[in-house]
Design goal:
The protein is α+β, with helices and mostly antiparallel strands and 431 residues long. It is built from twelve helices and 17 strands. The longest helix has 27 residues.
Amino acid sequence: MKLVGKYIDKRNGSVGDLGHVTLRPEDDEDIWHLYNLVQQDDLVKAPAVRRVQNVSATGSTESHRVKLDLKIQVSKVEYSSSGGGQPSSDQTSQGSNSTPNVQSTATLHISGKVVSENQYVRLGAFHTLDIEINRDIRVEKSEGWDSIALSRVEESCVPGRGAEVGAVVCGEGSAAFCLLSQHLTLVTHRISTSIPRKASASGSSQYEKAMSKFYSMVYDAFLRHIPFGNPSLRAIVFASPGWVRESVYTWMTNEASRRGDKLLARSLREKTLKVHVSSPHVHSLMEVLKSPEIVAQLKETKFAREGIVLDKFFKMLASDEMRAWYGPDHVCLAADRGAVGTLLISDELFRSSDPKTRKKFVSLVEGVQRKGGEVVIFSSMHESGQQLNQLTGIAAILTFPLDVEVVEAEEREAAEEAEKNKQEESEGKVG
């Protein structure tokens, strides 16, 4: 993401800072950042195309499209990542020293009422802005810029980002091609083809032909959908149950040598990691991220850190449940007592349409950080974030054990005592 312009008026108090930020998205991950940044009632200005009708003096109607900048007050934000792809068996033409052309597939639609009138659009008219790559978008926060929104802008504008891991999760006749970046897991392509069973001599021949065709499809799809030549790509993972990953890797290295594709051969030799997983499906990526090979090579990246922390939480939940809490109410109680050592929170919670709910979680994050705790914000576009969302989207690893029942009893006693004092004060005033 490119930061085109920024004006933030710093001010004290509980309300966020006023101002605006102009950004230019450059890839799918930037579109995801914008989806997490734009909230209901924010003011957004971006390029748009409107169909305009002109009526001539003779009564005839002429329609044409006009490009203009529209400013709307947001009422709805829709994000779509079409990375799932349909199973495909098509192949690309052969070539050497090729580099893949991975195009943007994410879409972001922002709808709302027009708040800045012009000659083509009346004030209050509804419009949907289609946010596109390399088109500037200006955002003004209705509730002010809180720390989470500002950190999102800073993080999205760090140079040199991009996909850090390319993964091929495969089985006999099936393969899913994935790109993992700091905040996004994108399935760029899928392959599915039938493989006959190897039951006889003739069946063995048919099986080998089918597998050879499958390997060729994987090779050609890899060229198109995995940016193996990019410097930012740190690892290429082949994951599968059984022996398939070894066979795919061997076939690809031999084919790269046969075609004289030196860039691919070097990338496979220097970046490849082969990992065993329990099933040939995309959700097995969680197993990939927890494997010792990946942890050792990518331990400082955000998505690997998410997997490590979530695994630590589940282990703590199994061994010492008084130090592993989850759910908004329970985690807030633990934070009030200064017990949170590591806070696990999904970015989905910050997309709440209710400003009070968002402020509640922002205050929780800031409170944990002030007390020296670690905060890990999970991307709901990673498998680890989706698993956390199944646990209400928020959890905590405590620095010391707390009994939930005891804490809740203390809270009830404190509430009853406060209510009793309030009644005594009101009775005293009446007397």
